[in-house]
Design a protein that fits this description.
9 helices, globular, mainly alpha, about 180 residues
Length: about 180
């Protein structure tokens, strides 16, 4: 979405008579990419749909707090990432699992929508072994190809810290693959 289209959408989101239609456009426009981002973090189709729905509910409820300091996509990614990290923390707290990566990968392999090969499964195991926030940084940078400045806005972290986090994530993933040989 270019800046003119985004400005127009923001304008319509701020007009009560056009708000519902504009929000529906927002949902249709950003659902696929937010779904992918959330799915890469939680691995479950059903959990992803729940988090995505919660993301858009929060966006709707807080629409009047969007100041336009960041792009709409950045604002939505921030909400989705926070919802995802909160979900993962609640899940850890509820299950008491110390071996969350194994549980995540088991959930992934049991998911009927997963169609990856053995290499993809190994990559997902490596990524699942990362701490949640580091995993979020890795996904936003590697899969979504976001610039550090945008990730900084989403995660409310300095660019330097993000670069270090991404570097450590990549190193841990490489080390994981080396240990598999």
């Amino acid at each position: 979405m270019n800046s003119t289209e985004e400005t127009s959408l923001i304008h319509r989101l701020n007009q009560p008579e056009h708000q519902r239609q504009a929000f529906e456009q927002l949902v249709n426009l950003y659902s696929p990419q937010l779904y992918r981002q959330i799915r890469r973090m939680v691995y479950s189709h059903d959990d992803t749909n729940d988090i995505l729905q919660n993301t858009f509910i929060k966006a709707w409820v807080n629409l009047d707090t969007f100041r336009g300091d960041a792009r709409l996509s950045t604002w939505l990614y921030r909400i989705a990432t926070n919802e995802t990290l909160n979900f993962l923390q609640r899940k850890k707290d509820m299950t008491g699992l110390d071996d969350a990566p194994t549980a995540i990968v088991n959930q992934l392999t049991a998911d009927e929508y997963f169609d990856g090969n053995e290499t993809e499964l190994q990559l997902q195991k490596a990524i699942a072994s990362l701490p949640d926030k580091q995993r979020a940084v890795f996904h936003l940078k590697y899969y979504e190809e976001m610039k550090y400045e945008e990730i900084s806005s989403i995660l409310n972290t300095s660019v330097g810290a993000l670069k270090a986090s991404y570097h450590h994530a990549v190193k841990k993933i490489c080390d994981f693959f080396k240990s598999q040989d």
